[in-house]
Amino acid sequence: MLPRLHHMPQLNTSFNEPLLFLERHFLSRHEQIQEWFKAEWQQTPPPVYGSVDLRNAGFKLAPIDMNLFPAGFNNLNPEYLPLYAESARKSITTILPDAKKILIIPEKHTRNVFYWENVAALTRVLKEAQFDIRIGSVADDASAPQTVTLQDNSSLIIEPLQRKGDLLACGNFVPDLVLLNNDLSDGVPEILQNISQVLAPPASLGWSRRLKSEHFQYYAAVAEEFSQKAGIDPWLIAPLFRQCGKIDFMQQEGLTCLAQNAEKLFRQIQEKYDQYNITQQPFLIVKADAGTYGMAVMTVRNIDELLTLNRKQRTKMATAKGSQPVRRVIIQEGVYTFETLGEEQAAAEPVVYLWGECVVGGFYRVHKERGIDESLNAPGMHFEPIAFSRPCNEPRKDVFPDASQNRFYTYGVVAQLSMLAAAREIKEQQTK
Prior knowledge:
This protein is of the alpha+beta class. The chain has nine helices and 19 strands. The chain has two domains: 5-70 and 210-431, no CATH class; 81-205, Rossmann fold (3-Layer(aba) Sandwich), CATH 3.40.50. The strands form four sheets. Strands 1, 2, 3, 16, 17, 18 and 19 form a seven-stranded antiparallel β-sheet that branches. A hairpin with an 8-residue loop joins strand 13 (284-288) and strand 14. The chain is globular.
């Protein structure tokens, strides 16, 4: 079964040539690249699953976010369910060879039907992989099973959890592995603490403790090592960034730190643009240093914009998911997206999904109302599946004889680098 190439976006050709260099370069060295990854995975096993948001500027392809608790399995092409299951089984049994029963911990108190469609899709993958599955709620008020009705009128049963000593259970169902699909922005619930079962990904990597800036420090190191092996400039695959703590947007505290770091970052980006004869205007993305759902994010095109934030802008940046106050931000090099989809040429960005080290597919996040220098993770977005023909990390020479058409493989390489950075995060947490 071949990938559905009609989902390939139309890339602005004036910025395509440097990305063609990456595609051709990675293709010509794919055996070395996969050997390098193989050695790295042996030293540092990957997380059970993850998703990576990428931006393709033509002259640069880089991750802008990495989620260890991915919510979007419903946006993957359902025709490839057996392939997702194959990768999921490989990833889970690598962590726990005898795993048979899996308990999914979803987000709590959400009425977002699309999120529950994600849980349903995740459940289908795991059942196809021959696991026995239950879904358990960590909500404090969960005392009886809850039925969630999906768009096709099917339903999910969300069961209350119990502790039996150091074991987590749903009634008589005692799982071998507890799979988190809850980013723990509010902290680690007491019921999940000190359990003897394997908890994957580790609760210590939830957004109440994890920082985006820390992930990108790991990623910068991974990109540097990989680039030395691959013979490229690491800037081509890594966003520059800085971070600021002790921020209070409503009280306008810490904004001097923000402006000073933004000014330094603008200079660094301009130097790279000059090096590669890029005529576009550098821009920055300022966002909460922890959290998901595209909250507390803004585009900054010049320093004056930071110094003159109005009350509406400061209010938007003041809180993240769950009304958590934003006290730290990451200031990230903005990466243009010159990928478009549809007759309207709507801005698009790839999101790549992995089970362990296996790249299984993903989707394009598309937004008709957002520009090429703005976050597309916002209300009004929609998704187009990216169909990989098998859950592997090899280029498909039979399908893509021209390296310029082998973009999926290039996406997968960069996504694996982000997954490796997350693996190192986990390893460091576990050794502390």
